[in-house]
Amino acid sequence: MTIHRRDFLRAAATGTLALGAPAALVRAAGAQGAPEGAPKLLRALTRTIEVNRKPATVCGLQQADGSAGLTFAEGDTFAVELRNELAEPTTIHWHGLTPPWAADGVAGAPEPLLEPGASRRYAFPVGAAGTHWMHAHTLQEQNLLAAPLIVRDKDHASRDEQEVVILLHDFSFTPAAELLARLKAGGA
């Protein structure tokens, strides 16, 4: 059987389009944000990571599909439901955004911490494009309760570029409360 170059190129292009189009459509749909009235679910949870070949139990912020962080387009509504799946109360600060004061994620100012098993909905304008982050305003942030919070500008989808977001965390097997106590006592 002989395969001609043009037939091969046509088949390769068709296969590439068939395989790549669904992923592109999924990415494009995700970039639009949640449908009107349907907030993005963000889970504060416990997870296990490996550090120096040892398991470490840490916190995390994940969407329903398991991805970390949130992405919005400039001008979107920040429509998010935060669900606390941790064993302790928490709150999340949307660093870089300008939410109403009551939704700013500062413990007790004015909303109380979100109790385990509870959810809270947020809705406010996202604002200008930028690379931000979200994190706890408790010692949970030192236990990795933080994630990227990206607001893309309006022409982002038209550019031919791939974005890679890297969020670096400090980590210690020593509990954050113990580290804080050492610092307050004058030592590390």
From TrEMBL:
Q: Which residues form the Plastocyanin-like domain?
A: 69-155
- Among the Pfam families in the record, one is Cu-oxidase_3
Q: Cite a single GO MF annotation.
A: oxidoreductase activity
CDD domains on file: CuRO_1_LCC_like_3 (cd13865)
Q: What is this protein called?
A: Copper oxidase
Q: Which organism is it from?
A: Alsobacter soli
